[in-house]
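Final report, results section. Input specification for complex C-07:
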Amino acid sequence: MAVSLVCVECGREHEPSGIWRCEGCSGMLEVRISEVEISREELDARLSYGNTHYSSGVWRYKELIHPLIEEKMIVSRHEGNTGLYTHSRVSEFSGIKELYMKHEGENPTGSFKDRGMTVGISEAVRLGSRYVGCASTGNTSSSLASYASVAGISSVVFVPSGKIALGKLSQTLAYGAKAIQINGNFDDAMRLVQEAAERLGIYLLNSINPWRIEGQKAMAFELIQQLGWESPDWICLPAGNLGNTSAVGKALSELVGLGLIEDMPRIAAVQADGASPFYNMWKNGYSEIRPVEPHTLATAISIGNPVSWKKAMKSIKDTNGVVERVTDQEILDAKAVIDSSGIGCEPASAASLAGAKRLRSANIIKEGESVACILTGSMLKDPEITLNYHMSRLDGIDARHMNAPIAVEADIDKIVEVFGKNAKELPLDKGEVTPLEIL
Ligand SMILES: *Cc1c(COP(=O)(O)O)cnc(C)c1O
Ligand SMILES: [Zn+2]
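Structure output:
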């Protein structure tokens, strides 16, 4: 088994050391693992391995992700093993009968970032790094902070001031990372952390780091394994810095190459209207990304200059995929439907469903095709948006699925009166139980 870091620009191969850019041309690197063999049966058998590293939904696929690493260096929080859901209300909303939601918000720190981070931090341990860092819209920093502390490594995160959701910032501080708030946006933070990493000898763990992408591949491996090794027709995912789009495409190509699946699913990468440079590039056939000033309420995908655009474009081409964009209104409508179905997700995650709905309406997703939407983060990450939505306090957003609290005096007669007057307006479905019967 051979493992190398290959430059995606010039093809130069490097030994797996602590670099994240090509030593020849500064291009981005990707991990190449050759001569692997693994069967569906072996991977299925590992589902019953109990409390070993194979019980992690990332390290179960170790040969396909980081075969070099010794078990004692693995820093795992039993990430992955996230739920796959269907719900009639979500199907109805999207017009897609066979629609799955893979809930990556069920990872230990509440987002899919843990899949890449367990591999990134384990690699930092293998390399003997003392300090790790990243720029983040919040979820990468939460994940980095947690895994670094578990490993006993110091961490620093660069975050855009005022543009990070409350749940993410509080988590990052609590897990013990040093947080540098940049007076700028994510793209500024990304540029500065790369310079800081080089000057200060910090091991950079943004998704520019090829090991992060390796870990994130496990999301696709696990999804397909949960579907009994049957490919869905489509995988829809929100697209910001494009690490995830890159990882899912790489994973799918590898699964086909290894003979673990027969049919290649199509990727649909979904951006927010106000932060859609990748959509522009794909739609207009630009040869390079043209950065934009990002504006969207979905902070996790509020990125105007995505680092992984080249790898992500390869994912779209290799899977005969598409790129879509949706408005904040569409994102929050989709989120409200996912939330009220009892599943819940953070705003950026709902871009996947909003995109699937749009693609179905345009008949790009055809009648009868199956779709897996990736819900990238937990509902609890961004309580402010959720609350402001249900209080109808978001500028320019029509809170169509609003469910505001009702203030009532502490008096049972008053409470009964409120129910009597408002029973029809209460946000309950046609079900058998009426509000008064509940009382
Ligand atoms: C990071 C993140 C994204 C975007 O993923 P990229 O790999 O940057 O495209 C989407 N949703 C959530 C919740 C995230 O944390
Ligand atoms: Zn190169």
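The two ends are 65 Å apart (CA to CA). The pocket of zinc ion (ligand 2) is lined by residues 7, 9-10, 12, 22, 24-25, 27 (CB under 6 Å). This concludes the modelling results for the funded period.
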